Automatic annotation (TrEMBL), chains A, B:
Cross-referenced Pfam families: FCD (PF07729), GntR (PF00392)
Domain (HTH gntR-type) ranges: 9-76
InterPro entries cross-referenced by the UniProt entry: GntR_C, TF_FadR/GntR_C, Tscrpt_reg_HTH_GntR, WH-like_DNA-bd_sf, WH_DNA-bd_sf
UniProt key word Transcription regulation: yes
Keywords from the named record: DNA-binding, Transcription, Transcription regulation
Keyword Lyase on entry: no
Name by which UniProt lists this protein: GntR family transcriptional regulator
Classification of source organism: Bacteria, Bacillati, Bacillota, Bacilli, Bacillales
Cited PROSITE patterns: HTH_GNTR
Superkingdom, taxonomy of origin: Bacteria
Source organism (scientific name): Psychrobacillus mangrovi
Gene3D superfamilies, per the entry: GntR ligand-binding domain-like (1.20.120.530), Winged helix-like DNA-binding domain superfamily/Winged helix DNA-binding domain (1.10.10.10)
Length: 211, 211
DNA sequence: AATGATAGTTTTGTATACAATTTTGTCACA
DNA sequence: TGTGACAAAATTGTATACAAAACTATCATT
């Protein structure tokens, strides 16, 4: 159908994207043994590009020991701990440096969060965080958080984070603090916001466990 | 000579280690074009394992666009910014949780820092930070810092950080704060310590620039 | 001298073959 | 029933060949 999606990019890149998506959407669930030849046959390419894509996925932590990763509760805590540090700092930076345009966009994200469809809300919430992280002006920080997104996504699939009560209210508070250029407050609010996200995640996971 | 170093590990792993070391010790200086076949010939193996090792080095940021990375001053600042956040947190954790044995080891690092040979001092200083980072109990944090070490090393080569005045005194202050279980103080001291490291690095780099 | 077309060269991407290793299954024996 | 030895099968690691692409150099034309 779409030439772009099957032909133009290199086989390695295609393989990387397909396998990554399969892991993220649960098509390849956690713990699944990864077999090069099997994937090669499925994607209709040879093992060589498959191997390279697997090495990449290894580096990003989506594959460990030839198995699809199965992040634990501890992993989730660790991840949010790092996020709290990096995004807390970013929120402070945003209060100091975020240009007016981006403020507008933040405000719009909140609006969509209140009025949009499920799909739109998820996108807007992600964008909200992304804008703030970019305000850090630190590419290493941006990349580090990017790298963690896959694992977060893996949890979010089951948790449906966008439905958490007060989530948008908290975004709005953060936005207000940034708008008032109150860095310390923005940082604190971001920290509690992420902590609440984590607690919500953990709560859902643990209640699911007793089914 | 040493069978272990040439035979037992896989060709891919050998290649990874050799190329990585060559970059770190300046044998492959920043900006060098990386050519697969050339490396394969030099290491006496085929291109296949070379390619995989290069993908790995790409992921770690030591190779960018088939060239050896040449980190900028901005990169250095970014890196230390992240370190300050993560190691500051780690120092606080260490004050809360570090067991007595590790405290002893920290103290010993300081002793070596005062009395050891250059080589020993460098090792001891690295160990000092490593013990504290491990005290975070957060494997993601540990890995993230690990990943940054190569680039730091790349700078340290020219900067000879171990000779910075007060470095060991600052370590000692941090150690004392941890020993007294004063988390906030340990965190603050670690932050200023790393900031001083960064400033020293930048100073050296900029004075070298005017040669 | 500047441009740009084109042949030649280098380098990368992919497929394939085979060797080495790991895993799996089977069966004899205690 | 359990265990461990071994063969068979599956999987991974590495080398090699060739095709595709990116890069260089040369030279004709303006």
């Amino acid at each position: 159908m779409n030439q772009q999606s099957t032909n133009s990019r290199s086989a390695y890149q295609q393989a990387y994207e397909v396998i990554r998506d399969r892991i993220l959407n649960g098509d390849l669930p956690g713990g699944t043994k990864i077999v090069e030849e099997k994937l090669a046959a499925e994607l209709g390419i040879s093992r060589t590009p498959i191997r390279e894509s697997l090495r990449q996925l290894n580096n990003e932590g989506l594959i460990i020991n030839k198995k699809v990763v199965q992040p634990t509760e501890k992993d989730l805590r660790n991840l949010f701990q790092v996020r709290i540090l990096l995004e807390g700092f970013s929120a402070k930076s945003a209060a100091m440096y975020l240009p007016e345009d981006d403020l507008k966009t933040l405000s719009n994200c909140i609006k969509i969060g209140r009025e949009g469809t499920t799909e739109e809300i998820m996108k807007a919430n992600e964008l909200f965080h992304e804008i703030i992280v970019r305000a850090s002006g630190n590419t290493l920080m941006i990349d580090t958080i990017d790298r963690m997104k896959s694992i977060i996504y893996l949890f979010r699939k089951t948790v449906v984070l966008y439905k958490r009560p007060h989530l948008i209210d908290e975004h709005e508070e953060i936005y207000e603090a940034i708008k008032l250029r109150n860095g310390e407050k923005a940082k604190k609010l971001m920290e509690t916001h992420l902590q609440a996200d984590l607690d919500f995640c953990l709560h859902i996971i643990n209640s699911e466990r007793n089914d």
